[in-house]
Amino acid sequence: xxxxxxxxxxxxxxxxxxxxxxxxxxxxxxxxxxxxxxxxxxxxxxxxxxxxxxxxxxxxxxxxxxxxxxxxxxxxxxxxxxxxxxxxxxxxxxxxxxxxxxx
Length: 103
Hints:
By secondary structure, the chain is an alpha+beta fold. The chain has one domain (4-102). It has helices at residues 49-59, 71-77, 89-102, and strands at residues 4-8, 13-14, 22-31, 34-38. Strand 3 and strand 4 (34-38) form a beta hairpin. The longest helix has 14 residues, at 89-102. It starts with a strand and ends with a helix.
């Protein structure tokens, strides 16, 4: 996974943002202990690095890069892919509903 977007709305973090999302911050890890944070806000959002690490793991499709194997990493491995879908089931249902109504 590359960037992680923090947006305003029901789903706070996304691997891919939608065109209408209001982006609060963008997180880009460049090493196991360094991350670039971009924001248009005058103040940086409060960053909970434990939460960001968990979110990166959930939004990753198959793997994530880490600096060392540890008990914490093993816990993160269990959540890989939990929120990695490009489109949620609810969004997919809504799209199908709209398509059916057009036909």
